[in-house]
Amino acid sequence: MKSFFTPKEVAKLIGISYRQIQYWDKTNFIKPSYRRRGKYRLYTFADLLQLKVAKVLRENSFSIQRLRKTIKSLRTLLPQVGHPLVELTFLIEGERILVFNGAVLMSSESGKEYIRFDVKTLRDEIDRTFPDIYSDSGDQQEATG
Predict the structure, then answer these.
(1) Which of 15, 81, 91, 134 would staple 140 via disulfide (CB 3.0–4.6 Å)?
(2) How far is Cα 89 from Cα 98, in angstroms, rounded to an integer?
(3) Integer Cα distance of 2 and 88 in angstroms
(4) In this predicted structure, what is the pLDDT of residue 23?
(5) Helix, strand, or coil here: 101?
(6) Where are the chain's structural domains?
């Protein structure tokens, strides 16, 4: 796989204009990971993913200002996340942007956290840890309803 992409290649791959890429770089929205000889920009695969996610969000009526605010908020709330648009999972609900980070769900605007809890995963873990917890299928049937 190719390691670096020029802005023209990025424009073709992502489906955004060269000028849009320049503008997002100039305004510090999404900057390339590398610069060669001062001005020549080189984008990584992670950069491509960020640009693609930003494009999709823009196509779904999210303004650049709102995306900037969301990314800034996420970087403050989750300093260990280097590329929020790539490393996190987003759920768009009307005007709300909800963000998944592992088992934690949070609102990108308020920072309020919710715990995402999967009962089936817990049940599977208990079954693996204690394989003989149910003495026969009748007990298991009663326990599961």
Answers:
(1) 134
(2) 8
(3) 24
(4) 94
(5) strand
(6) 1-59, 61-145
Q: Are 49 and 88 in contact (CB under 8 A)?
A: no
Q: How far apart are alpha carbons 32 and 19 in whole angstroms?
A: 14
Those residues of the chain that have pLDDT short of 50 are 135, 140
Sign (positive/negative) of CA torsion 109, 106, 61, 63? Answer: positive
Region 1-59: CATH code:
1.10.1660.10
Residue 70 CA to residue 25 CA, distance in Å, equals 17
And the tokens for 99? 């963000």
Which residues touch 42 (CB under 8 Å, ≥6 apart)? 4, 5, 6, 32, 33, 34, 35, 36
Handedness of CA 12, 18, 22, 23 (dihedral sign): negative
Q: At what angle do helices 18-26 and 7-14 cross, to 10 degrees?
A: 120
Q: Which two tokens stand for residue 1?
A: 């796989």
Q: What is the model's pLDDT at position 106?
A: 61
Cβ atoms 71, 37 nearer than 8 A: no
pTM, to two decimals: 0.66
What span, in angstroms and rounded, lies between the C-alpha atoms of 55 and 16? 8
